[in-house]
Amino acid sequence: MTRIRLFEERTLEVLMQGKLASTMCHVSIGQEAVAAGVCMAMQPQDYLTSTHRGHGHLIARGGDLARMMAELMGKATGYCKGRGGSMHITDMALGHLGANGIVGGHIGIAVGAGLWSSLSQNRAVTMCLFGDGAVTEGVFHEAMNMAAVFRLPVVFVCENNQYAMSLPWSKSTPAVDFKTRAAAYALPGVDVDGQDVAAVYQAACAAADRARRGDGPTLIGAHTYRFFGHSRGDPSAYRDPEEEKRWRARDPLPLFKARALAEGWLDEDAIVRIETEARQAIDAAVAAAEAAPPAADSVAFEDVYAPSGAQQLIDKAVSA
Amino acid sequence: MTTLMFRDALRQALREEMQRDPRVFVLGEDIGRYGGAYAVTKGLLEEFGPRRVIDTPMSEGTIVGAAVGAAMVGGRPVAEIMYVDFMAYAMDQLVNQAAKIHYMFGGQINVPMVLRTQQGTGRGAGAQHSQSLEAWFTHVPGLKVIAPAIPADAKGLLKSAIRDGNPIVFLEHKGLYALKGEVPDEEYLTPIGVARVARAGDDLTLISYSRGVHVALEAADELARAGIQAEVLDLRTLKPLDIDALIASVRRTRRVVIVHEATLTGGLGAEIAARLSEALFGRLLAPVQRVAAFDVPLPANSRLEKLIVPDAARVVQAARAVLNFSPQETIS
Ligand SMILES: Cc1ncc(C[n+]2csc(CCOP(=O)(O)OP(=O)(O)O)c2C)c(N)n1
How many structural domains is chain A composed of? Predict the structure, then answer.
């Protein structure tokens, strides 16, 4: 969580300095407990699908900060050779099947990954993260239904940060809890405090266990809040400042810190060490990204097609 | 050689590839117990079982999406969409996901999937079940688009498509499933991206694909009775286009007519015409002609339907216009 927070704070700084290669950049500050809780519940062979607000998901899955920052800056050393940017940041070798710019577009892909896990018995669970905006797209219904009827090992996690751009969740749908929604697919639906990393982790573990047992998908609603605007230049004028204050008082980082100290999971020293290490890692990542060469012009014209007869490239990536 | 129907040739391709590679599986609506709306997958469920022949719910978007996801993590899916018209429901998964993934993610992963679907007129199936939508797909970098005209190519190209490693749209024509043709007995692959000379000739070139090839051949027969030898080229692959083969033929014949069942405006014929004009402007003896469906939806009335799509008579007429063209006509 600390790494995600600091990485994204740095990203905003770098953005303001005009060093990002694209205008597209969505930060998840305030939502870190969801990414961390879900990804901690994953095993190495598992898959993850992610969204336009996906930096946190990749960091929580173990993504390399320097390659991430390089990608944001459009550098040759970036995860996607500098042509994907923030919205498509991805490390396939980690079973991360892509951050997606089409809201809801990856939910079907998660079903496909789950389908192949079921057919090949590869013991992988797919964690499918999406925002509340995706829930009202048509593909959500198709995907939930297909995963449910085939009992696929997929965990659907709605990172409900209360807004799809300007539209509040309560105006998106009259069915605001996920238990009710899941009932339509005869699936367990779990509503969880998305500011509480332990609660998210427990829900994700239970759902992943269920999926791995062959009992099928779970729908988790992790209720959270984005502390900043939808993207740069969005002052969130559509939000009530009182509401923002209430949610900011439930910042997942201090909440966890207090709990960890109270329960004796961590002491002050350990917390300082975590923060210092994260800061150093991010400094190093920014420095490496700044020093890296920009993506060559030729990168724009490459990789439109894989070579004919190509095996799945991820096979290589995973075994490498 | 064995004489096979188009649909049986397709089924042979699926069977052989499923026997060869345990990662290959098929999914779609009514493809298992029912055997497919056009009986292409008949018998596969019995042979390969429900884990490799998957009857899905009615969910075109997620049929394609699931194929994309499975392809990314190790499967070799062949998805069937019952009618190309229903691709309107699934375009995001194909265009924004399948076609973009290899590029967008920096070449980290590829999407070895085939999307089989069926299009075209001939059954009076009406405005929502008869379209020819290949231009939707050829417009998108990252996709390959195949549209065979004869059983041998149907089989050889489907096998190549399954092995290709990219997202491939494989367009069958509903009016061709019962067409019979010779199919080699031994294993073979037909290369993607290579056109075929369906009939040789020197007087003009007729370019088509899918069922249009048969319309063009019929027209060529009629022209031959008048002593005109038309060359008929079957594109077989619509993207990537075998532009070299087209240019070579038209450089020789200097006259060309393009035939397709899709509507005229924005059709693939426009692209081919532009490319040929760019390459052969001074060499052409007449403007490139297109014979396509008129720009109207298709009525659910077989008689009216026939008025809209090209037939041999229209192709002959266009061919005569090209042959009789005199440049003075356009100078006013
Ligand atoms: C299909 C589609 N429609 C609209 C958009 C434009 N858009 C990008 S993000 C967004 C809001 C998404 O909200 P949500 O899913 O809740 O995710 P959040 O941004 O809150 O993380 C919109 C409307 C898009 N990218 N894709």
Answer: 1
